[in-house]
Specification:
It contains 17 helices and eight strands. The protein is of the alpha/beta class. Helix 2 links the parallel strand 3 and strand 4.
Length: 410
Amino acid sequence: MKAYILTLLLSVSSLHLLWSQPFLGQTKNIQSESLASDQQIHVYLPDNYEKGDKKYPVLYILDGQWFYLNGIAIQKTLRGENVLPEMIIVGVDMKSRQVHDSILNNKWDEYASFIKKELVSYVDQTYRTNQDRVLFGWENNAFLASELIIRESSPFTGAIVSNGGSMDEKMVESFNKYSNDQKPKYLFMANSDKDIYTVRYSNNFAKDLTEQNFANLTWEYRKFNEETHESLPYLSMYHGLRFYYHNYGSIVYASIDDFHQKGGIPYLREYFRQRGERFDQDTEIDNSTKNTLIWMAWKEDNFSSFDLFMKEFADVLDTKRYASAYWQNRLAQFYLKYGDVVNAITYFNRGIQKYPDPKYLAKMHAGLGEAYRSKGDRKLAVKNLKMAVSCATQNNDPKLADYESLLKKK
């Protein structure tokens, strides 16, 4: 029993130390005139924050004493920025359930003013921030987050409203008054039919939003009916961020059919145009997407789409990725398989001349011989098949017999 208690104490001690480590952020006290008291916040800075002068979006988490670590976990478990960008995370500590309920019941307007004016101003002045600000609120704070994204001129461009939320006539009037002067806003709402305490508020909120049809607000309401009142916040935060940043990363297709069903090349160009303009990125289709589509068409044995991508994305073929005998041979062999001997000859010759890798020389010469045979040029066909046999002999190629057989047929 003593050993068990000691282990437990060490675990608690380790957790306390973990909280104080730099990667979990800084703790700050802000003097709030609105609330006439100090307010404690926790601030997490991205891993690369100190390595440059980049400006970052900010995720503001109400009830940070409960959910601040959720925001950090989402950041820490992502690999790369193709799903979500690195973010500054600010957790607003409401200290205890009693303080939480007291503030929201008795000082609603004051607390809203603190969040909207004092807190955002402090963070912008203290850290390198851009104009993307997402606010997360659960339960009581879901109603506050609803108000802060819709009512009055708001500094927030997005809100994640979990297990609650509502809208009244004053909020509608306010949004209509200010919406034309602000960036487009995004609202993600989440609840569960198992949350018998708040789901009716969320349902009514979604109904009201549908009826209003705000032009400058993009919103979504999702039910996670496997979750309960207490278990939903982590999921809603993650999915809310995915919703807000739905077009942040490169577009990913499930298949070539998926590519065509979503609108093909015109849709792809428009996606990157909108993405670039919204997040100040390049508006051209990125090389990663071009490479993936070429590879996917080859993998699915879809020559018509492969040929389309090779023509549309010709610029990517001169990049480092394709600077190898492996890639030149792969492209050439696919062209040869579908009878496009002109392109097959082009890529076989490029591979032989620019990337004379012994591992692929026999394959490329054999393919080139087959391409010339199809073209009716017997002389060049024989020449290259002899080269294939020679290279295979020198490198103990297990396909030597195959190349010799091809040569005999000529």
